Amino acid sequence: MEKKRLGVLVSGRGSNLQALIDASKKDDYPAKVVVVVSNNPEAYAIERAKKENIPVYIVKREDYKSKKEYEEKIREILIEYKVDLVVLAGYMKIIGKTLLDAFPWKIINIHPSLLPSFPGLEAQKKAWEYGVKISGCTVHFVDEGIDSGPIIGQRAVPVYDDDTPETLADRILQEEHKLIVESVKKILTEEYEIVGRRVVFKKKGAENI
Ligand code: GAR
Q1: How far is the CA of 139 from the centre of ligand 1 (A)?
Q2: How much distance in Å is there from the Cα of 110 to the middle of ligand 1?
Q3: Helix (H) or strand (E) holding 120
Q4: pTM score > 0.85 for this model?
Q5: Banded model confidence at residue 204, pLDDT cuts 50, 70, 90
């Protein structure tokens, strides 16, 4: 099986990147990480990529006059590595038109809440402060909004009375690692349509019923 090629954008710790790298070592996993781009030169994700001999590029927003030029650089890298899918794994910048147009419905993001609740930054803390009893994580296609694109998959976790934002974030993160791996596999191996804002997976053989 020829593995599909993932380009992963990161800004920090890179534990979701690591989950994808680990999954891709299994022969039957349908994808491999071929390039990593970080906007943050201090990101620990960079060390993780280097350790696996995955090419890693640091592209800093401050080094470009406009968001367009910044994203053109990232686009150039992703095209050079012939990526089939772009994964935002803790990438803390909003994707603009340049990348959206270059990879239509080929960019996915992992977010640490059950969207559409708590989009944006510090989602785990917002959920904890709000007092929800269930939270979780979401993988979705990226559109022009903030954490607003069609949902591919979600996983839920309980929120306990003695949780802190940190213990809740840790519990969600464990599920993120599973969700990112299963979501990438699902969209690369199953047929689906985006209907309105719903991602509808077609059951194999359903057309014959
Ligand atoms: C993860 O919790 C991810 O869901 C979140 O940042 C963390 C990155 O962790 N992303 C966002 O909040 C995006 N809006 P990681 O670097 O260890 O994968």
Answers
A1: 11
A2: 7
A3: none
A4: yes
A5: low
90: Cβ below 6 Å to ligand 1? Answer: yes
Q: Which helix (H) or strand (E) holds 161?
A: none
User: Residue 205 — very low, low, confident or very high, per pLDDT cuts 50/70/90?
Assistant: low
Ordered structural domains, the chain, with CATH? 1-104 (3.40.50.170), 110-209 (3.40.50.170)
State the residue for tokens 């802190």.
164
| Cβ of 171 less than 6 Å from ligand 1 | no
3-state secondary structure of 34: strand
Tokens at residue 30, please?
A: 């349908």
Which pLDDT tens digit goes with each residue over 94-150?
A: 999 999 999 999 999 999 999 999 999 999 999 999 999 999 999 999 999 999 999
Tell me if residue 10 falls in helix, strand or coil: strand
Residues making up the chain, counted from first to last: 209
